[in-house]
Automatic annotation (TrEMBL):
It comes from the Bacteria. It holds the Pfam family Transposase_20. Residues 18-71 form the Transposase IS116/IS110/IS902 C-terminal domain. InterPro entries: Transpos_IS110 (IPR047650), Transposase_20 (IPR003346). One of its GO terms (molecular function) is transposase activity. One of its GO terms (biological process) is DNA transposition. This is IS110 family transposase. The lineage of its organism: Bacteria, Pseudomonadati, Pseudomonadota, Alphaproteobacteria, Hyphomicrobiales.
């Protein structure tokens, strides 16, 4: 596939793939999916990545109104 060819052709992305695949439970497909969807991995902090991935709860509030935290 296109992502496979792209990762194989880029030493930087190949290195990211190897690092991600070294995590228990993360295989080649998951690593390549993460590289494709979150190319920022490794260049921004964990909170920013959590926000990009939609995993960080944010409280909706404005002035005196307070909403609920949602993921």
């Amino acid at each position: 596939t296109e992502i496979d060819d792209t990762v194989r052709g880029s030493p930087i992305w190949r290195e990211k793939e190897e690092l991600l695949a070294s995590v228990p439970g993360v295989g080649t497909k998951t690593a390549r999916s993460l590289i494709a969807e979150l190319p920022e991995l490794g260049s921004i902090g964990r909170r920013e990545i959590a926000a990009l991935a939609g995993l960080a709860p944010f409280t909706r509030q404005s002035g005196q109104w307070r909403g609920r935290s949602r993921i």
